[in-house]
Write a structure and sequence with these properties.
Length: 465
């Protein structure tokens, strides 16, 4: 038994020595003694060929090349839809609700009669104001006739003045004739050629003509005074007519005011939309809005256009401007993607939330969107720059001052390169400087990879990355 054990131990020692000698001989065999590689087992990249010993120690890595085109700066935020316009319709006057033509959910058109309030006293005010206006219009016609009469009297007085002045001239001629006749007979009388009685007769005629002239001159003065009086009556008639016309305007304004108040009995829709609230029923007494703090009779929302409101956080405020493209999805409308743009931004942040309000005007012709719908809005804040991009998982370590590190494969080794990083969205990162489109970048660098490590390259697709 003892001899058997000694033989067994000797065999084990011999086998161990023989194995160690064989392994030593294999390591001493030169690499160029290996058979030439075939086309099938040739390395994928000639720049990454290495010795068999290097391949045994190489780290297997997946690689990818940079893609042209930068990263779009965008943000996805919660948003809510609101009617573009919404109006609470109050009664301007008090009265009983005589007619209600709509109810909650009714589709209405701009100017459509929605409700009618019974206010007979205002209707009577319209009748009274109209009668007063017609009365005043008649007064205007009367004063216009008086003015025409006064103007005619004035012209007649002017004509009488002309006639009286003409009479004066006629008397002047008569006086001149009688004076010549009187002097001629007076000379004949001194020569005892005519009787004295005939001379006295001519003197009487001369004196009569002189009296007639003085009477004509008095008539001229009277005619002028009559003309002045007629002119004053014309001015008075013009003033009366102006007052009457002004009073007509006053009565017309009163009529329009009464008609306006009467029109307040009709509640009409301010725009195309839908009735979202109805708070009274026919027969109820409606208080005027200025006499009560009660509820509105109806509420109407405009539906053809909605206002989608979003609150942009402080970090994105510098990049948000009117005109930025947006895409909106509502939770209750899966599969619908609404395209638009920022219509307006507040350019002022809310101190409580540190967000800036922005709005999108979204057409709603199919009435799919309703007030207070909740959804998500993706805003394209900046377009992609002319640069290269990589998957974010290519980066090594943390970003500092816009700088990052990636492994670039050159001649079969991984070289750690510093690159300038731009935008990144968590999926892809923008590389501004440090790489070219032909570079081969390690994606998801494995543990243990360091600058100068020998690597065995696989494409990202082959590695399943």
């Amino acid at each position: 038994m003892l001899k058997f054990r000694m033989k067994y131990r000797t065999a084990l020692v011999f086998a161990f020595v023989a194995g160690f000698a064989g392994l030593l001989m294999l390591r001493l065999i030169p690499t160029n003694a290996a058979p030439p590689s075939t086309e099938a087992n040739r390395p994928l990249n000639s720049s990454q060929t290495t010795t068999e010993e290097g391949l045994e120690n190489a780290i297997r890595v997946a690689t990818i090349s940079p893609q042209s085109g930068g990263v779009i700066r965008s943000t996805k935020l919660p948003c809510s839809a609101h009617w573009y316009d919404s109006a609470d319709l109050f009664a301007k006057v008090s009265g009983y609700l005589a007619q209600l033509n709509v109810d909650i959910g009714s589709r209405v058109k701009a100017g459509e009669l929605l409700a009618l309030i019974d206010i007979p006293e205002l209707e009577q005010d319209v009748v009274l104001a109209n009668a007063a206006l017609q009365h005043q219009l008649a007064a205007v016609s009367q004063f216009e006739a008086r003015k025409k009469s006064a103007v005619a009297e004035f012209h007649a007085a002017e004509a009488a003045c002309v006639k009286a002045e003409a009479d004066v001239h006629r008397w002047d001629a008569e006086i001149l004739f009688r004076e010549k006749e009187y002097r001629r007979l007076q000379a004949l009388s001194q020569a005892n050629s005519v009787q004295e009685a005939l001379v006295d007769e001519k003197l009487f005629q001369l004196q009569s003509v002189q009296v007639g002239k003085r009477s004509a001159e008095t008539a001229v003065l009277f005619a002028k005074q009559q003309a002045l009086a007629a002119g004053a009556r014309v001015e008075l008639s013009e003033a009366d007519l102006a007052v009457a016309r002004m009073q007509t305007k006053i009565e017309d304004a009163k009529l329009k005011k009464s008609q306006l108040y009467a029109s307040f009995s009709k509640i009409t829709s301010p725009y195309n939309g839908v009735v979202t609230a109805r708070r009274f029923h026919p027969g109820e007494f409606i208080q005027a809005a200025d006499k009560s703090s009660g509820e509105a009779l109806l509420t109407v929302g405009r539906t053809d256009l909605v206002r989608v409101v979003v609150h942009i956080p402080d970090r994105d405020v510098p990049y948000a401007d009117a005109g930025d493209p947006v895409e909106i999805e509502f939770d209750t409308l899966p599969g619908h993607h609404f395209q638009g743009e920022l219509a307006r931004v507040a350019y002022s942040e809310d101190m409580r939330t540190r967000t800036m309000r922005a709005e999108v005007d979204l057409p709603n012709d199919k009435n799919l969107i309703v007030d207070q719908m909740y959804g998500q809005m993706t805003i394209q804040l900046q377009a992609a720059a002319e640069s290269l991009t990589l998957p974010a998982v290519c980066l090594v370590g943390d970003l500092k001052n816009g700088q990052g590190n990636v492994f670039v494969v050159r001649n079969g080794t991984a070289q750690l390169e510093t690159v300038t990083v731009g935008l990144h969205d968590g999926i892809r990162v923008e590389i501004l400087q440090g790489l070219s489109p032909d570079d081969v970048i390690v994606i998801r660098p494995p543990t243990g990879l360091s600058d100068g490590s020998t690597v065995q390259v696989e494409t990202a697709a082959a590695a399943g990355t």
